[in-house]
Amino acid sequence: MKNTTTRKKKNPRILIVTPEITYLPHGMGNMYNKMSAKAGGLADVSASLVGALFRQNADVHVALPHYRKMFQVDTFNLDSESLRLYTRHLTSNRIHLAEDRIFYYRDSVYSSYERDSFMQAVAFQREVINNIIPAVKPDLIHCNDWMTGLIPAYARRLGIPCLFTVHNIHTQKYSMAALEDRGIDVASFWKHLYFERPPYNYEESRDSNRVDMLTSGIFAAHYINTVSPTFLKEIVEYRHDFVPDYINNEIAGKFYANCARGILNAPDEAERPETDEFLIENYNYETFETGKRINKLNFQRQLGLIEDPNAPILFWPSRLDPIQKGCQLLADILYKTVERYRHLNLQIAIVANGPYQNIFRDIVNFHGMYENVAVCNFAEKLSRIGFAASDFILMPSKFEPCGLPQMTSQFYGTLPIVMNTGGLHDTVTHLNAEANTGNGFVFDNYDSYGLSWAIDQAVKFYQQPRAVKNQLISRVMREARDRFNHDRTAGEYIKIYEDMLKKPLINNF
Predict the structure, then answer these.
(1) Are 283 and 291 contacting, i.e. CB atoms less than 8 angstroms apart?
(2) pTM recorded for the entire structure
(3) What is the DSSP string of 428-471?
(4) Contacting residues for 144 by C-beta, under 8 A, at least 6 apart
(5) Which of 257, 259, 411, 425 has the fewest Cβ atoms within 10 angstroms?
(6) Residue 48: which H helix or E strand, with range?
């Protein structure tokens, strides 16, 4: 049966479903400033979107797991009545918490154990489907990533338009039997899900034909977006072999039906040199030369590097993942790069975790480069100082759905060195000092020679006269502020909402 629904409502109700968020705007609940659960850029874009909608007096609602421990409230010793009053106090009629013990005592949003991930994802979606959507009665639902992948199918069954945002190409697969055993009535919307193989009927597929969570979200949603325009184009053009063909096909189908768009994320608003609480000296686009000098000396002292305010520092801000982030390219040229620019005291600071950390340590130990290369575990405070103290960041990623460090660095007057891919392509253009254009250094070939060439270009710029450098860095900082901000990102999502709500919705039941 076909049902055509036209939605004409002056102030439509929007439900944003997200497993993570950094903050909620003042006025959405008495404990709005306690609700922070972040693993990556999804938390920032969720917060910015909710905030922008709320400031515009939109009827915006948020569904997220009830991470009691991460919300910084001790509930261990509360009796049942006190706990009920606490929960009532915490929320408002705009904040809707998915309740399940799996969330209550967590220290982090995601788990490295597949069983835990399954329990979290299903508990969250069970509460959204069974309790939150019926209570909110939204006019539009916005879901984020694989942990919400069942909800677009349920929304399609109800005739509610749904946007699904693909932040990463990560998915998990579960049988309908496993989902139903955890309290989700998949039988009512199974025809809108995506399976490992085409289903013959519900009965034969229930136990043996697993549901793909991410692809179900893409398949069932009325509209999708990726977190950068170029990454969307790369998927549609089948450029990445790590993306399964069936995901490529579903995203391409949405794209050619004019139901897909790329929208850049924006960096955390706390990461600004004017207000960053972790910096030794705050600064802006007019005072950056002095501010960066003071932070550089402090950073060098903390890491045991040569204390030289004139030494160029290359900073590695991303996890040391050889599959995506290109850390092996730096390992190949680490010694030669330091030796080539030893007369400048060139330094490389790696503040990151990951499987390649020990390889970098071994290289430093073998060559005795302790005063020029530092390798240490990630710490938020040290990383923030690194952005302020350094002159360049290294992001030679093989692929990048969006990327945030290459944008964050520009706020701090630190120029990015990047591979020409995905969100890096959308946010960094090659610098031309003479014309005062560009904001970083871009190489096209994914190999150590390409990275070495880009580093050479960066060091060449570093040796330019102060007036030339300062004019360009100041411009980059100003442009980053205007270009990479949450209100602009939220505005792009609002345009999609408006487009979706204008169109008649055809549902097949």
Answers:
(1) yes
(2) 0.89
(3) --B-BTTTTB-SBEEE-S-SHHHHHHHHHHHHHHHTS-HHHHHH
(4) 16, 17, 18, 19, 42, 46, 164, 165, 167
(5) 257
(6) helix 41-55
